[in-house]
Amino acid sequence: GAVVSQHPSWVICKSGTSVKIECRSLDFQATTMFWYRQFPKQSLMLMATSNEGSKATYEQGVEKDKFLINHASLTLSTLTVTSAHPEDSSFYICSTGRDFATDTQYFGPGTRLTVL
Amino acid sequence: RKEVEQDPGPFNVPEGATVAFNCTYSNSASQSFFWYRQDCRKEPKLLMSVYSSGNEDGRFTAQLNRASQYISLLIRDSKLSDSATYLCAVNDEGRDDKIIFGKGTRLHILP
Question: Using CB atoms, which residue from B99, B103, B104 is nearest to A105?
Answer without folding.
Answer: B99
